Amino acid sequence: MRDFSLDVSESEFDTAVLALSRRVPVLVDFWAPWCGPCRTLKPLLEKLAVEYGGRFVLAKINSDEAQAVAARYAVRSIPAVKLFVNGEVVDEFAGALPEGQVRAFLDRHLPDEAERLRLSAAGIADPLQRAELLQQAASLSGGRTTIVLELVQALLDADLVEDAAAGLETVDPQERDDAWRSLKARLDLMENAPTVDEPALEARIRADAKDFDARFALAAARAGRGEWAAAFDQLLDVVLRDRAEARGKARDTLVEWFGLCPDAKAVMSARRQLSMYLN
Questions:
Q1: Is the pLDDT of residue 111 over 80?
Q2: Angle at CA 115, nearest 5°, toward 109 and 119?
Q3: Of 20, 35, 69, 75, which is the active-site residue?
Q4: Is 0.85 topped by the overall pTM?
Q5: What's the DSSP call for residue 192?
Q6: Catalytic residue among 38, 131, 138, 223
Q7: How far apart are CA 156 and CA 257, in angstroms?
């Protein structure tokens, strides 16, 4: 425990907390001997400091003996816990929180290697490269659901339907939430996308802008390839040109596909046009 947590006096604060936090996050626990909740929280924080294996250092400060530091950081009640990174408080909580909530607090700010890979992947445009990093992250994390779902999305973006289907099946049934169901619906759409003669469909539409069957078929083919903006355009044209059954079908399909499309800008633009056409 001595490697990951230490008692810090007021005179040591700048060195043991502020300077150290420029190399590793420092979790400061303001406590006092007379504080009952402190006696509950302190051993929990010590345990987590060991369990997290150096991803943060726990600094324990007796607020009765370090009143200037406590005042400097507006400690009004204890236990008060503040996380320092690069010499600044980045987050804090008060009171003896349950272990699960303390872990969630730490995990928001202390990404492990798998999480760092996930964050790196988010900035990569090429879906194959993104999937490669996410595969590494999923393996390192032991199949963490959030990472697996991002991997499945990258695989779908890369049109690797079978790999995406296999990834979805690895998610525990109890963790199959709305995000999982949305990806499953997108997978089903891609697996069932019709094989069509797209140039022929485009020719039909040029000849008759109200050939709605051609527009629906073309939209489905493009959505199946992940070309969402192009798919939305076809359905929006149906909404614009029809006032009967086809319009309702196009509207309902758009609303369904908005939940499947990973391109937020494309969804926002199509939503705006849909609202304009309907009003």
A1: no
A2: 95
A3: 35
A4: no
A5: T
A6: 38
A7: 15
